[in-house]
Write a structure and sequence with these properties.
This protein has four helices and eleven strands. With 191 residues, the protein is α+β, with helices and mostly antiparallel strands. Strands 1, 2, 3, 4, 5, 6, 7, 8, 9, 10 and 11 form an eleven-stranded antiparallel β-sheet that branches. Strand 8 and strand 9 (146-152) form a beta hairpin.
């Protein structure tokens, strides 16, 4: 999946641009880990169990963090693509091998996809608030300056700002990106 994408509507020539700003994924390496030992021998780690239970392994290229649990479950945060996650996993596994572990490559599962989209125009909040999606919309401008839209299928939450910028969180697969963006587009257009 590319980091950037766009969806166009033929009937009016409008293009909705979006990009993946964060992927959260996890896997399990099937081995118990001594996080104190790993922190002592690897430079790019942070581990303070009294503050946070997981070791944080940071990479600058690709730029992301891996949260490492004693159980061997690892969580990738901050990635922009699956390719970045795979590269980070391989670098982390090389480091684990260098300190005596034997990690096994398991399936990487996507937990959350965060999308930033731009409609490229100001939005009419009254139109959106009175659209046919009433039960799913929250808007409290005194608390937060966006409309909060919650959808069940595909399951996601979107923050919709008046300037046409949208943040979509909670997607679990790449196929749902297009349908989420199209659904929001229909809603803001009152269709």
């Amino acid at each position: 999946m590319n980091e950037l994408g766009e969806i166009g509507r033929k009937e009016c020539g409008k293009i909705i641009k979006y990009r993946i700003v964060n992927l959260v994924a996890y896997t399990n390496i099937s081995e118990q880990l001594d996080l104190d030992h790993i922190k002592r021998v690897l430079d790019n780690c942070e581990y303070e169990p009294e503050v946070y239970f997981a070791l944080i392994y940071r990479l600058s290229e690709p730029k992301l963090s891996i949260l490492v649990n004693r159980s061997g479950k690892i969580i990738f945060a901050g990635a922009k693509s699956v390719r970045n996650i795979q590269k980070a996993r391989d670098l982390f596994f090389d480091d684990l091998i260098s300190v005596g572990y034997h990690p096994k490559k398991r399936k990487i599962s996507i937990q959350n996809i965060v999308i930033a989209a731009e409609l490229g125009r100001e939005l009419d909040f009254k139109k959106i608030l009175y659209s046919n999606s009433r039960g799913k919309i929250q808007y409290e401008p005194e608390v937060f300056p966006s409309i909060i839209f919650k959808n069940n299928s595909p399951r996601f939450t979107a923050l919709i700002f008046r300037n046409g910028k949208i943040c979509i969180v909670g997607l679990k697969n790449f196929k749902s990106i297009r349908s989420a963006v199209e659904l929001i587009d229909k809603m803001v257009e009152g269709r």
